[in-house]
Amino acid sequence: MTQNEKRALVEAALGQGNGILRLEPAWVARDFLPPGKRLGLKEEEYDVGERGWISERWLGSTTKADNRVGPPDEGLSYVALGGGRRMTLKDAVEVAGSAIMGEEYARTHKGLGRLAKIYDFGDRIPYHLHQMKKDAALVGANPKEEAYYFPEGVDMGPHPETFFGVHPYIAEQKQYDILLPYLVEWRDDLILRHSRAYLLVPGEGFHLPSGVLHAPGTALTIELQEDSDVFAMLQALVAGKIISKELLFKDVRKEDREKYGERVILGQINWEISGDPYFYENRHTAPVLVEETKQAGGEEYWIYYNTTKFSGKRLVVRPGQKFTSVDRGVYNILVWRGRGRFDGHEIEAGNFGFDELLVSHARATVPIVIENTGTEELEIFKFFGPDINLDVPYIPKYPPGV
What we know:
Elements: H1 3-16, E1 20-24, E2 26-30, E3 53-59, E4 78-82, E5 85-88, H2 89-95, H3 97-101, H4 103-108, E6 114-119, E7 128-129, H5 133-136, E8 146-149, E9 161-164, H6 168-172, H7 180-185, E10 196-199, E11 205-208, E12 214-215, E13 221-226, E14 232-233, E15 237-238, E16 241-242, H8 254-260, H9 263-266, H10 271-274, H11 279-283, E17 284-285, E18 288-289, E19 298-304, E20 311-317, E21 322-325, E22 331-337, E23 339-342, E24 345-348, E25 356-359, H12 361-364, E26 368-372, E27 378-384
Antiparallel strand pairs: 1-4, 1-25, 2-3, 3-6, 4-5, 6-13, 7-14, 8-11, 8-13, 9-10, 9-12, 11-17, 15-16, 18-19, 19-20, 20-27, 21-26, 22-25, 22-27, 23-24, 23-26
């Protein structure tokens, strides 16, 4: 199929959907942790053999999962084009970027530039970092700033707390080498003694710049991040087994590994933020009501903010009510709870194929009516890419004046 033929298919689907495309779920396996089994799959569908377990669902994704083994399209969302035809969202954006993202945005941005996902693990994710721009660029990748939201009404798992950063004195006194023996010996999980844990509270979240050490807890998490899958694992013992040390060096150049060994990872840590004594005050994200869109039928809350690299909202529409939505650019949605109609498109939480949509720039920027046709609240998450919402709230720097 030629590029012109692909573009024609996408544009026809946009026309039929009034500027909105249906998306299929993208399931992602991981082999270093057991699954939490809260993604709505059947019991037997979580185990995928050598690939590990289905532990994540990627949403509106144009990013390929960087796994050791797996299908070539793992992590990529598919657009349902009608008549049984489908195409990856990545291909759709490449051939019809202006139609999806708007001409002006498409001129200044290569793609959607963000990745939303649900991750679902039965044990704490190992202590790790995502490379900053300077280090990710060395391996031809993007950095990975990210943010979390912990949905309400879901089991929190056995470890509902996340380790963030390091004890402040380590950064203040530049005692960076205190972490090095754990990386060299690669035998246990005691590196966590140098970090601090924070309770994960349903309905709240955190914003995490790249380069910051963290070991996320077992709360089911809806994450929004930059378009990347880079990381370095610093914790050897995970869920009772030693993971491959190759995960420490996954996104390190061969020549840097040979020259610096494990020490190369210490140079990839954002020590200033990792050692912030007021980490919670500066990174915790409680929901913020979007006052200007509040209506009788429902309201929206900022849940991903404090950056213009991505942003996101939680929309709640009351039973039997309607909400009129107008936004500043292209976004994708996940229907988390309830059922209804989104600009006439039937939507229903947990009904795969009916719980994800992509809303083009042209449609997003004019009024869309969202109707709750069920008996419980209709809860929808909206995910935006870089530079779309330039007026997002920012957490006041703490302590003030510093």
